[in-house]
Amino acid sequence: xxxxxxxxxxxxxxxxxxxxxxxxxxxxxxxxxxxxxxxxxxxxxxxxxxxxxxxxxxxxxxxxxxxxxxxxxxxxxxxxxxxxxxxxxxxxxxxxxxxxxxxxxxxxxxxxxxxxxxxxxxxxxxxxxxxxxxxxxxxxxxxxxxxxxxxxxxxxxxxxxxxxxxxxxxxxxxxxxxxxxxxxxxxxxxxxxxxxxxxxxxxxxxxxxxxxxxxxxxxxxxxxxxxxxxxxxxxxxxxxxxxxxxxxxxxxxxxxxxxxxxxxxxxxxxxxxxxxxxxxxxxxxxxxxxxxxxxxxxxxxxxxxxxxxxxxxxxxxxxxxxxxxxxxxxxxxxxxxxxxxxxxxxxxxxxxxxxxxxxxxxxxxxxxxxxxxxxxxxxxxxxxxxxxxxxxxxxxxxxxxxxxxxxxxxxxxxxxxxxxxxxxxxxxxxxxxxxxxxxxxxxxxxxxxxxxxxxxxxxxxx
Length: 462
Fold this sequence. Notes:
With 462 residues, the protein is an alpha+beta fold. 38% of the residues lie in helices and 21% in strands. It folds into 2 domains: 187 residues, 2-Layer Sandwich (Chloramphenicol Acetyltransferase); 240 residues, Nonribosomal peptide synthetase, condensation domain (Chloramphenicol Acetyltransferase, 2-Layer Sandwich). A hairpin with a 6-residue loop joins strand 7 and strand 8. Belongs to the long-chain O-acyltransferase family.
Protein backbone atom coordinates (compact mmCIF):
# COMPACT_ATOMS: atom_id res chain seq x y z
CA UNK A 1 0.00 0.00 0.00
CA UNK A 2 1.48 3.36 -1.03
CA UNK A 3 0.82 6.56 0.89
CA UNK A 4 0.14 9.79 -0.95
CA UNK A 5 3.69 10.98 -0.27
CA UNK A 6 5.12 7.80 -1.86
CA UNK A 7 3.61 8.66 -5.23
CA UNK A 8 5.65 11.04 -7.38
CA UNK A 9 3.36 10.55 -10.38
CA UNK A 10 0.86 7.88 -11.49
CA UNK A 11 2.75 4.59 -11.52
CA UNK A 12 5.91 6.17 -10.02
CA UNK A 13 6.64 5.29 -6.38
CA UNK A 14 9.42 6.53 -4.15
CA UNK A 15 11.75 3.96 -2.60
CA UNK A 16 11.82 4.00 1.19
CA UNK A 17 15.19 4.37 2.93
CA UNK A 18 14.91 0.80 4.28
CA UNK A 19 14.61 -0.51 0.73
CA UNK A 20 17.40 1.74 -0.53
CA UNK A 21 19.66 0.13 2.09
CA UNK A 22 19.24 -3.20 0.26
CA UNK A 23 20.47 -1.60 -2.97
CA UNK A 24 23.41 0.20 -1.42
CA UNK A 25 24.65 -2.69 0.72
CA UNK A 26 25.00 -4.94 -2.33
CA UNK A 27 28.40 -5.81 -3.79
CA UNK A 28 29.58 -8.26 -6.46
CA UNK A 29 30.55 -10.61 -3.61
CA UNK A 30 27.22 -10.13 -1.78
CA UNK A 31 24.26 -9.85 -4.20
CA UNK A 32 21.12 -8.86 -2.28
CA UNK A 33 18.50 -11.31 -3.53
CA UNK A 34 15.58 -13.10 -1.90
CA UNK A 35 15.30 -16.49 -3.55
CA UNK A 36 13.46 -19.80 -3.63
CA UNK A 37 14.25 -23.16 -5.15
CA UNK A 38 10.79 -24.47 -6.00
CA UNK A 39 10.75 -28.24 -6.45
CA UNK A 40 7.82 -29.36 -8.61
CA UNK A 41 6.39 -32.80 -9.32
CA UNK A 42 6.61 -33.03 -13.11
CA UNK A 43 6.67 -36.36 -15.01
CA UNK A 44 9.68 -36.81 -17.29
CA UNK A 45 7.49 -37.00 -20.39
CA UNK A 46 5.97 -33.59 -19.64
CA UNK A 47 9.09 -31.54 -18.83
CA UNK A 48 9.58 -30.21 -22.35
CA UNK A 49 8.31 -26.66 -22.58
CA UNK A 50 8.26 -26.07 -18.80
CA UNK A 51 10.19 -22.81 -19.16
CA UNK A 52 7.74 -21.59 -21.80
CA UNK A 53 4.84 -22.53 -19.51
CA UNK A 54 6.41 -20.57 -16.66
CA UNK A 55 6.84 -17.54 -18.91
CA UNK A 56 3.11 -17.69 -19.68
CA UNK A 57 2.37 -18.06 -15.96
CA UNK A 58 4.39 -14.91 -15.22
CA UNK A 59 2.96 -12.94 -18.12
CA UNK A 60 -0.55 -13.54 -16.75
CA UNK A 61 0.28 -12.66 -13.14
CA UNK A 62 3.21 -10.23 -12.95
CA UNK A 63 0.97 -7.10 -13.10
CA UNK A 64 -0.39 -8.10 -9.67
CA UNK A 65 3.09 -8.06 -8.16
CA UNK A 66 5.60 -5.23 -7.51
CA UNK A 67 7.99 -6.72 -10.10
CA UNK A 68 6.89 -4.95 -13.29
CA UNK A 69 9.04 -1.91 -12.56
CA UNK A 70 12.34 -0.20 -13.34
CA UNK A 71 14.49 1.75 -10.87
CA UNK A 72 15.45 5.39 -11.57
CA UNK A 73 17.79 7.56 -9.50
CA UNK A 74 16.57 10.97 -8.49
CA UNK A 75 18.47 13.97 -9.87
CA UNK A 76 21.41 14.80 -7.55
CA UNK A 77 19.96 12.40 -4.95
CA UNK A 78 17.68 15.17 -3.66
CA UNK A 79 14.54 13.02 -3.56
CA UNK A 80 14.20 9.25 -3.13
CA UNK A 81 15.01 6.99 -6.03
CA UNK A 82 11.81 5.72 -7.64
CA UNK A 83 10.20 2.61 -9.06
CA UNK A 84 8.51 3.26 -12.41
CA UNK A 85 5.82 0.84 -13.60
CA UNK A 86 6.45 -0.82 -16.96
CA UNK A 87 3.91 -2.46 -19.24
CA UNK A 88 5.75 -5.75 -19.61
CA UNK A 89 8.97 -7.70 -19.21
CA UNK A 90 11.31 -9.49 -21.63
CA UNK A 91 10.54 -12.93 -20.27
CA UNK A 92 12.77 -14.66 -22.81
CA UNK A 93 15.67 -12.93 -21.07
CA UNK A 94 14.37 -13.11 -17.50
CA UNK A 95 13.25 -16.78 -17.53
CA UNK A 96 16.01 -19.14 -18.66
CA UNK A 97 15.58 -22.78 -19.65
CA UNK A 98 18.30 -24.89 -17.99
CA UNK A 99 17.94 -28.26 -19.73
CA UNK A 100 21.36 -29.78 -19.01
CA UNK A 101 21.35 -33.22 -17.37
CA UNK A 102 21.71 -33.15 -13.58
CA UNK A 103 23.06 -36.36 -12.09
CA UNK A 104 21.63 -35.65 -8.62
CA UNK A 105 20.48 -32.91 -6.27
CA UNK A 106 24.08 -31.97 -5.54
CA UNK A 107 24.51 -31.01 -9.20
CA UNK A 108 21.34 -28.91 -9.00
CA UNK A 109 22.58 -27.16 -5.86
CA UNK A 110 25.92 -26.39 -7.52
CA UNK A 111 24.10 -24.81 -10.45
CA UNK A 112 21.94 -22.74 -8.10
CA UNK A 113 25.00 -21.60 -6.13
CA UNK A 114 26.62 -20.36 -9.32
CA UNK A 115 23.50 -18.48 -10.45
CA UNK A 116 23.02 -17.04 -6.98
CA UNK A 117 26.02 -14.77 -7.64
CA UNK A 118 24.55 -13.14 -10.77
CA UNK A 119 23.43 -9.63 -9.88
CA UNK A 120 20.11 -8.25 -11.03
CA UNK A 121 19.80 -5.27 -13.36
CA UNK A 122 17.50 -2.85 -11.54
CA UNK A 123 16.90 -0.81 -14.69
CA UNK A 124 14.69 -3.71 -15.79
CA UNK A 125 12.19 -5.80 -13.76
CA UNK A 126 14.20 -6.91 -10.70
CA UNK A 127 13.95 -10.69 -10.92
CA UNK A 128 15.39 -13.73 -12.69
CA UNK A 129 14.17 -17.32 -12.98
CA UNK A 130 16.03 -20.48 -13.96
CA UNK A 131 13.96 -23.55 -14.94
CA UNK A 132 15.81 -26.85 -14.43
CA UNK A 133 14.34 -29.88 -16.19
CA UNK A 134 17.39 -32.19 -16.22
CA UNK A 135 16.73 -34.08 -12.98
CA UNK A 136 16.49 -37.82 -13.58
CA UNK A 137 13.27 -38.43 -11.66
CA UNK A 138 9.80 -36.90 -11.98
CA UNK A 139 10.84 -33.56 -10.56
CA UNK A 140 11.75 -30.19 -11.99
CA UNK A 141 13.05 -27.10 -10.22
CA UNK A 142 12.62 -23.35 -10.60
CA UNK A 143 15.14 -21.06 -8.97
CA UNK A 144 13.31 -17.74 -8.69
CA UNK A 145 14.98 -14.69 -7.20
CA UNK A 146 14.06 -11.04 -6.81
CA UNK A 147 16.00 -8.13 -5.39
CA UNK A 148 15.74 -7.63 -1.64
CA UNK A 149 14.90 -3.95 -2.17
CA UNK A 150 11.49 -5.02 -3.52
CA UNK A 151 10.42 -6.82 -0.34
CA UNK A 152 11.62 -8.77 2.66
CA UNK A 153 11.14 -12.52 3.10
CA UNK A 154 7.47 -12.20 4.05
CA UNK A 155 6.77 -10.01 1.04
CA UNK A 156 8.63 -12.49 -1.18
CA UNK A 157 6.26 -15.24 -0.08
CA UNK A 158 3.35 -13.05 -1.15
CA UNK A 159 5.03 -12.55 -4.55
CA UNK A 160 5.31 -16.33 -4.95
CA UNK A 161 1.66 -16.72 -4.00
CA UNK A 162 0.61 -14.15 -6.59
CA UNK A 163 2.62 -15.99 -9.25
CA UNK A 164 1.23 -19.41 -8.33
CA UNK A 165 -1.98 -21.09 -9.46
CA UNK A 166 -3.61 -19.88 -6.24
CA UNK A 167 -3.87 -16.36 -7.73
CA UNK A 168 -5.92 -15.72 -10.88
CA UNK A 169 -4.53 -14.08 -14.01
CA UNK A 170 -4.86 -10.29 -14.12
CA UNK A 171 -5.29 -7.88 -17.04
CA UNK A 172 -2.06 -6.77 -18.73
CA UNK A 173 -0.76 -3.23 -18.51
CA UNK A 174 -0.94 -1.15 -21.64
CA UNK A 175 1.83 1.43 -21.15
CA UNK A 176 4.86 2.40 -19.06
CA UNK A 177 4.45 5.10 -16.44
CA UNK A 178 6.02 8.49 -17.19
CA UNK A 179 8.55 10.30 -15.00
CA UNK A 180 8.20 14.06 -14.57
CA UNK A 181 11.01 16.24 -15.88
CA UNK A 182 13.87 17.12 -13.54
CA UNK A 183 12.59 20.63 -12.74
CA UNK A 184 9.08 19.34 -12.04
CA UNK A 185 10.49 16.48 -9.96
CA UNK A 186 12.48 18.95 -7.85
CA UNK A 187 9.41 21.15 -7.33
CA UNK A 188 7.27 18.19 -6.24
CA UNK A 189 9.99 16.95 -3.90
CA UNK A 190 10.48 20.35 -2.28
CA UNK A 191 6.74 20.61 -1.66
CA UNK A 192 6.72 17.11 -0.17
CA UNK A 193 9.62 17.80 2.17
CA UNK A 194 8.04 21.07 3.31
CA UNK A 195 4.72 19.33 4.04
CA UNK A 196 6.45 16.57 6.03
CA UNK A 197 8.79 18.81 8.05
CA UNK A 198 6.68 18.52 11.19
CA UNK A 199 6.49 14.74 10.92
CA UNK A 200 10.25 14.50 10.43
CA UNK A 201 10.76 16.63 13.54
CA UNK A 202 8.49 14.35 15.57
CA UNK A 203 10.32 11.29 14.27
CA UNK A 204 13.65 12.85 15.18
CA UNK A 205 12.46 13.37 18.75
CA UNK A 206 11.21 9.76 18.89
CA UNK A 207 14.57 8.50 17.64
CA UNK A 208 16.40 10.44 20.35
CA UNK A 209 14.12 8.87 22.97
CA UNK A 210 14.75 5.42 21.49
CA UNK A 211 18.51 5.92 21.56
CA UNK A 212 18.31 6.98 25.19
CA UNK A 213 16.23 3.90 26.02
CA UNK A 214 18.75 1.65 24.27
CA UNK A 215 21.72 2.91 26.27
CA UNK A 216 21.00 0.82 29.41
CA UNK A 217 20.60 -2.28 27.21
CA UNK A 218 23.97 -1.91 25.49
CA UNK A 219 25.75 -4.25 27.89
CA UNK A 220 23.30 -7.09 27.25
CA UNK A 221 24.34 -7.64 23.64
CA UNK A 222 27.19 -10.04 22.92
CA UNK A 223 29.98 -8.61 20.79
CA UNK A 224 30.53 -10.21 17.39
CA UNK A 225 33.72 -12.28 17.80
CA UNK A 226 36.56 -11.98 15.33
CA UNK A 227 36.97 -15.18 13.32
CA UNK A 228 39.62 -16.67 11.09
CA UNK A 229 36.65 -17.12 8.74
CA UNK A 230 35.79 -13.42 8.96
CA UNK A 231 37.02 -10.74 6.63
CA UNK A 232 35.99 -10.02 3.09
CA UNK A 233 33.34 -12.23 1.53
CA UNK A 234 34.37 -14.09 -1.61
CA UNK A 235 32.33 -14.53 -4.80
CA UNK A 236 32.08 -18.32 -4.38
CA UNK A 237 29.15 -20.19 -2.84
CA UNK A 238 28.19 -23.67 -1.72
CA UNK A 239 24.47 -24.42 -1.36
CA UNK A 240 22.33 -27.27 -0.08
CA UNK A 241 18.94 -27.91 1.52
CA UNK A 242 17.34 -29.55 4.54
CA UNK A 243 13.70 -30.55 4.92
CA UNK A 244 12.21 -31.69 8.23
CA UNK A 245 8.53 -32.53 8.84
CA UNK A 246 7.11 -29.55 10.69
CA UNK A 247 4.85 -31.29 13.21
CA UNK A 248 7.63 -33.42 14.78
CA UNK A 249 9.85 -30.33 14.89
CA UNK A 250 7.10 -28.37 16.67
CA UNK A 251 6.49 -31.26 19.06
CA UNK A 252 10.16 -31.47 20.07
CA UNK A 253 10.27 -27.71 20.60
CA UNK A 254 7.15 -27.88 22.77
CA UNK A 255 8.53 -30.68 24.94
CA UNK A 256 11.67 -28.62 25.53
CA UNK A 257 9.72 -25.46 26.43
CA UNK A 258 10.88 -23.74 23.26
CA UNK A 259 9.42 -22.17 20.14
CA UNK A 260 10.09 -23.43 16.63
CA UNK A 261 12.46 -20.48 16.18
CA UNK A 262 14.31 -21.30 19.42
CA UNK A 263 14.85 -24.87 18.27
CA UNK A 264 15.84 -23.73 14.78
CA UNK A 265 18.55 -21.51 16.29
CA UNK A 266 19.73 -24.27 18.63
CA UNK A 267 20.03 -26.84 15.82
CA UNK A 268 21.89 -24.29 13.71
CA UNK A 269 24.19 -23.62 16.65
CA UNK A 270 24.98 -27.34 16.88
CA UNK A 271 25.86 -27.51 13.19
CA UNK A 272 27.97 -24.36 13.20
CA UNK A 273 29.76 -25.38 16.40
CA UNK A 274 30.80 -28.74 14.98
CA UNK A 275 31.90 -27.38 11.60
CA UNK A 276 33.98 -24.57 13.09
CA UNK A 277 35.47 -26.92 15.67
CA UNK A 278 36.51 -29.32 12.91
CA UNK A 279 38.19 -26.39 11.13
CA UNK A 280 39.92 -25.30 14.37
CA UNK A 281 38.09 -22.00 13.88
CA UNK A 282 35.63 -22.01 16.80
CA UNK A 283 36.07 -18.86 18.93
CA UNK A 284 35.95 -18.91 22.71
CA UNK A 285 33.12 -16.35 22.55
CA UNK A 286 29.70 -17.38 21.20
CA UNK A 287 28.92 -16.78 17.54
CA UNK A 288 26.57 -13.87 16.95
CA UNK A 289 23.67 -13.98 14.51
CA UNK A 290 22.27 -11.42 12.14
CA UNK A 291 18.55 -12.17 12.08
CA UNK A 292 15.37 -10.10 11.90
CA UNK A 293 11.89 -9.51 13.27
CA UNK A 294 9.11 -8.27 11.03
CA UNK A 295 7.27 -5.14 12.11
CA UNK A 296 4.89 -5.24 9.16
CA UNK A 297 1.37 -4.09 9.93
CA UNK A 298 -1.73 -3.95 7.78
CA UNK A 299 -1.18 -0.28 6.91
CA UNK A 300 2.27 -1.09 5.52
CA UNK A 301 0.92 -3.29 2.73
CA UNK A 302 2.55 -6.51 1.55
CA UNK A 303 5.81 -5.32 0.04
CA UNK A 304 8.92 -3.33 0.86
CA UNK A 305 11.19 -4.10 3.82
CA UNK A 306 9.71 -3.90 7.30
CA UNK A 307 12.28 -5.75 9.38
CA UNK A 308 14.29 -4.95 12.48
CA UNK A 309 17.73 -6.53 12.73
CA UNK A 310 18.44 -8.61 15.84
CA UNK A 311 21.78 -10.02 16.95
CA UNK A 312 21.37 -12.81 19.50
CA UNK A 313 24.29 -15.10 20.24
CA UNK A 314 24.22 -18.86 19.61
CA UNK A 315 25.89 -20.05 22.83
CA UNK A 316 28.44 -22.00 20.78
CA UNK A 317 30.75 -21.73 23.80
CA UNK A 318 28.50 -24.14 25.76
CA UNK A 319 28.76 -27.90 25.26
CA UNK A 320 25.55 -28.97 27.02
CA UNK A 321 22.69 -28.82 24.48
CA UNK A 322 19.99 -27.85 26.98
CA UNK A 323 22.17 -25.13 28.51
CA UNK A 324 22.87 -23.93 24.98
CA UNK A 325 19.14 -23.80 24.15
CA UNK A 326 18.36 -21.86 27.34
CA UNK A 327 21.18 -19.39 26.69
CA UNK A 328 19.90 -18.81 23.15
CA UNK A 329 16.39 -18.19 24.51
CA UNK A 330 17.74 -15.68 27.03
CA UNK A 331 19.71 -13.88 24.34
CA UNK A 332 16.63 -13.73 22.11
CA UNK A 333 14.55 -12.27 24.96
CA UNK A 334 17.21 -9.60 25.42
CA UNK A 335 17.16 -8.78 21.72
CA UNK A 336 13.37 -8.62 21.67
CA UNK A 337 13.49 -5.94 24.39
CA UNK A 338 15.41 -3.74 21.96
CA UNK A 339 13.25 -4.15 18.86
CA UNK A 340 10.57 -1.54 19.58
CA UNK A 341 13.32 1.06 19.95
CA UNK A 342 15.17 -0.19 16.87
CA UNK A 343 11.93 0.06 14.90
CA UNK A 344 11.67 3.74 15.85
CA UNK A 345 15.19 4.26 14.50
CA UNK A 346 14.37 2.57 11.18
CA UNK A 347 10.86 3.68 10.24
CA UNK A 348 11.85 7.17 9.09
CA UNK A 349 10.64 9.52 6.40
CA UNK A 350 12.97 10.55 3.61
CA UNK A 351 14.88 13.80 4.00
CA UNK A 352 16.32 16.21 1.40
CA UNK A 353 19.44 14.71 -0.21
CA UNK A 354 18.89 11.52 1.81
CA UNK A 355 19.62 9.31 -1.20
CA UNK A 356 22.85 11.18 -1.96
CA UNK A 357 24.03 10.95 1.66
CA UNK A 358 23.28 7.22 1.89
CA UNK A 359 25.30 6.56 -1.24
CA UNK A 360 28.28 8.41 0.24
CA UNK A 361 28.00 6.47 3.52
CA UNK A 362 27.94 3.08 1.82
CA UNK A 363 30.75 4.03 -0.52
CA UNK A 364 32.90 4.62 2.57
CA UNK A 365 31.82 1.32 4.13
CA UNK A 366 32.57 -0.68 1.00
CA UNK A 367 35.89 1.12 0.59
CA UNK A 368 36.98 0.13 4.09
CA UNK A 369 35.75 -3.46 3.73
CA UNK A 370 33.78 -3.04 6.94
CA UNK A 371 30.87 -5.22 8.01
CA UNK A 372 27.59 -3.37 7.49
CA UNK A 373 25.82 -5.06 10.42
CA UNK A 374 26.98 -7.15 13.40
CA UNK A 375 26.95 -10.94 13.22
CA UNK A 376 29.12 -13.82 12.02
CA UNK A 377 26.26 -15.66 10.29
CA UNK A 378 22.70 -14.99 9.20
CA UNK A 379 19.77 -17.12 10.39
CA UNK A 380 16.18 -16.45 9.37
CA UNK A 381 12.89 -18.22 10.02
CA UNK A 382 10.24 -16.92 7.61
CA UNK A 383 6.53 -17.86 7.52
CA UNK A 384 5.37 -19.88 4.54
CA UNK A 385 2.16 -21.42 3.20
CA UNK A 386 0.49 -24.24 5.11
CA UNK A 387 -1.63 -25.33 2.15
CA UNK A 388 -0.51 -27.16 -0.97
CA UNK A 389 0.67 -24.87 -3.76
CA UNK A 390 0.82 -25.44 -7.53
CA UNK A 391 2.48 -23.77 -10.50
CA UNK A 392 1.15 -24.39 -14.02
CA UNK A 393 -0.86 -27.24 -12.55
CA UNK A 394 2.20 -29.00 -11.10
CA UNK A 395 2.35 -29.73 -7.37
CA UNK A 396 5.03 -27.92 -5.40
CA UNK A 397 7.02 -30.43 -3.35
CA UNK A 398 9.34 -27.97 -1.61
CA UNK A 399 9.94 -24.24 -1.29
CA UNK A 400 13.61 -24.12 -0.31
CA UNK A 401 15.06 -20.69 0.49
CA UNK A 402 18.16 -19.64 -1.44
CA UNK A 403 19.68 -17.17 1.03
CA UNK A 404 22.21 -14.37 0.72
CA UNK A 405 25.48 -13.83 2.56
CA UNK A 406 26.00 -10.29 3.75
CA UNK A 407 29.38 -8.63 3.72
CA UNK A 408 31.77 -10.07 6.30
CA UNK A 409 29.74 -13.22 7.11
CA UNK A 410 30.39 -16.80 6.04
CA UNK A 411 27.02 -18.61 6.12
CA UNK A 412 23.25 -18.22 6.05
CA UNK A 413 20.58 -20.74 7.06
CA UNK A 414 17.03 -19.69 6.22
CA UNK A 415 13.90 -21.73 6.92
CA UNK A 416 10.33 -21.37 5.78
CA UNK A 417 7.24 -23.48 6.10
CA UNK A 418 6.19 -25.32 2.94
CA UNK A 419 3.04 -27.32 3.53
CA UNK A 420 3.86 -30.07 6.02
CA UNK A 421 7.60 -29.37 5.96
CA UNK A 422 10.10 -26.95 7.40
CA UNK A 423 12.23 -26.33 4.30
CA UNK A 424 15.68 -24.83 4.74
CA UNK A 425 18.36 -23.47 2.49
CA UNK A 426 21.98 -23.47 3.66
CA UNK A 427 24.55 -21.37 1.84
CA UNK A 428 28.20 -20.74 2.66
CA UNK A 429 31.05 -18.66 1.38
CA UNK A 430 32.84 -21.58 -0.28
CA UNK A 431 36.22 -19.94 0.23
CA UNK A 432 35.63 -20.27 4.00
CA UNK A 433 33.34 -23.32 4.36
CA UNK A 434 33.82 -25.42 1.23
CA UNK A 435 30.73 -27.61 1.67
CA UNK A 436 27.42 -26.22 2.93
CA UNK A 437 26.37 -29.85 3.37
CA UNK A 438 28.61 -30.05 6.46
CA UNK A 439 26.51 -27.41 8.24
CA UNK A 440 23.27 -29.01 7.02
CA UNK A 441 24.39 -32.39 8.34
CA UNK A 442 25.23 -30.79 11.68
CA UNK A 443 21.78 -29.17 11.80
CA UNK A 444 20.12 -32.56 11.26
CA UNK A 445 22.33 -34.14 13.94
CA UNK A 446 21.41 -31.32 16.30
CA UNK A 447 17.71 -31.95 15.75
CA UNK A 448 18.17 -35.67 16.38
CA UNK A 449 19.93 -34.84 19.64
CA UNK A 450 17.19 -32.47 20.78
CA UNK A 451 14.51 -34.97 19.74
CA UNK A 452 16.13 -37.60 21.95
CA UNK A 453 16.39 -35.14 24.84
CA UNK A 454 12.76 -34.18 24.35
CA UNK A 455 11.68 -37.81 24.51
CA UNK A 456 13.66 -38.25 27.72
CA UNK A 457 12.05 -35.13 29.15
CA UNK A 458 8.59 -36.54 28.37
CA UNK A 459 9.36 -39.87 30.03
CA UNK A 460 10.67 -38.11 33.16
CA UNK A 461 7.52 -35.96 33.41
CA UNK A 462 5.25 -38.97 32.82
